[in-house]
Amino acid sequence: QVQLVESGGGLVQAGGSLILSCAVSGSIFSINGMGWYRQAPGKQRELVAVITSGGSPNYAESVKGRFTISRDYAKNTVYLQMNSLKREDTAVYYCNADGYYRGRYGATENFSSWGQGTQVTVSS
């Protein structure tokens, strides 16, 4: 079984910064892509940033130049550094990861899992 545990959300004033972390645990063989998504009230979940197994990032246009995604391969952790936060960044942020793990009976199985979500609130 694979679990993703997020941390780092909270309340911050506009213009401020936060860093989110998401640790992947379980009998992991390898992790491919990792990413962050967000969902604001009344809106659909949207991509914020993703990073490939090789470390190449991609960002939503709305966060380019303000957010930075990174990963620690040894810790199976992905981070999202958020700077110059705006009110419109307010949302529940979810991390996602996909890869392979040791499943039941030792078989190699693929996974694509989500974290529980962490609230980010930006006040004016």
Keywords:
124 residues; mainly beta; four-stranded antiparallel beta sheet; 0% helix; 60% strand
Task: Give a structural overview.
- The chain is mainly beta and 124 residues long.
- Helices cover 0% and strands 60% of the residues.
- It has no helices and 11 strands.
- It has strands at residues 3-7, 10-13, 18-25, 28-39, 46-51, 57-59, 67-72, 77-82, 91-102, 108-114, 118-123.
- Strands 2, 4, 5, 6, 9, 10 and 11 form a 7-stranded mixed sheet that branches. A 4-stranded antiparallel sheet has the order 1-3-8-7, with no helix packed on it.
- It is elongated.
- It starts with a strand and ends with a strand.
- The mean pLDDT is 96.
Total strand segments = 11
**Gross morphology:** elongated
Biggest β-sheet, characterized?
7 strands, mixed
Q: Helix and strand succession?
A: EEEEEEEEEEE
Distance between the termini: 41 Å
Question: Helices, strands, pairings?
Answer:
Elements lengths: L2 E5 L2 E4 L4 E8 L2 E12 L6 E6 L5 E3 L7 E6 L4 E6 L8 E12 L5 E7 L3 E6 L1
Parallel strand pairs: 2-11
Antiparallel strand pairs: 1-3, 3-8, 4-5, 4-9, 5-6, 7-8, 9-10, 9-11
What's a quick, concise take on this entry?
It contains no helices and eleven strands. It is mainly β.
